[in-house]
Write a structure and sequence with these properties.
Elements (H helix, E strand, L loop, with lengths): L8 H13 L4 E5 L17 H7 L5 H12 L5 E5 L9 H10 L3 E6 L6 H10 L3 E5 L5 H8 L4 H14 L4 E6 L8 H11 L3 E4 L20 H15 L5 H9 L22 E4 L4 E5 L2 E7 L5 H13 L5 H5 L10 H8 L7 H18 L4
Parallel strand pairs: 1-2, 1-7, 2-3, 3-4, 4-5, 5-6
Antiparallel strand pairs: 7-8, 8-9
Helix pairs in contact: 3-4, 9-14, 10-14
Length: 368
Amino acid sequence: MELYETGIMAEKVLQWKADESKTPLGGSIELLPLCNMSCKMCYVHQSRAEMDAEGRMLTCDEWLRIAEEGTRMGLLLLLLTGGEPLLYPEFKRLYVGLSKLGIVLSVNTNGTLIDEEWADFFAKNGVRRLNITLYGKDDATYGALCGNPRGFSQVMHAAELLRKRDVHFRFNCSVTPDNVDQLPDLYGIAKSFGVALSPAEYMFPASRRGKGAEEQYRLTPEQAGAMAVKNYLYRYPDADLCLASRQTLEHRKQPPRLKDLKGFPCHAGRSGFWMNWKGDLTACGMFSQPSISLKTHSFAECWDYIVKACQQLPHCEACERCEKQNICQVCPAMCYTETGSTAGRPDYLCEMTGTMIREMERLAAEKS
């Protein structure tokens, strides 16, 4: 959910404690499904007509009421996302109101709407981090992938405005067939601004938009697996890939991570949650069930329901027996979006992980 700074030990301890006590420490608010771009792989984006046919956005006052209830139970961190959250009509009032509740805020954005006024707003009100998705190295890629032939120029302008104001941001990247060969360039762009780049080789199927795994616009599992290994070199160009591969492969000898697991292996349903634009609380934004309405139940009632429901989720027995599980990133949400069931075997993940292992074995053997 992009909530934590992974290198800070105090935050790791806070997460562990929250997981143990089932405290809703951090979550995401999906403010709206609308966006000013139309990315081929997006799992959220709806048109205005589609949104209106399905429900309505919660108001600022409704969100503030929910957040206030959450703070009484330990809520400290929130990620505002969408769609494109800066399109939310009451974004600035909501942001200030959440800040006054003592909540630490981060924002996911495509960055194309950030102008002088928005940059001044975040400089004045503070933000833990803006996560700006960098979809390509030029306007042509943005045009092909996102339907916005000016997107790259807009994001570069936004990044410059934020840098001048010392607003903390980083770049994310959804790796797709349109930009898979551009990662070295994207790392270079991030470096030029002195910020990190966080690529995601795995793309969830857009099941929330009624699309199955076979319709998803993404890399083949073999491409994704190879890119996951190659990305390590892009991120750490001076790293010893032989040693890193050996160390990663050693994880297979550790106790199986999925044995006796209840719920999600991450923080979802333990200390983390997702609230969609209609006011439904779920454990994970990629996973629409179990869910419960925050409009008709208190935050405490909803959180209690989600925690208990997640503990009852069936798991994939094939994954629990698999020797690759300590390297594979599989989770119930991936099983569900890939197969329609949390107990389904996600072949895409199996093939992706198999490619990763074969590539690491090749690298590990190079100096032996």
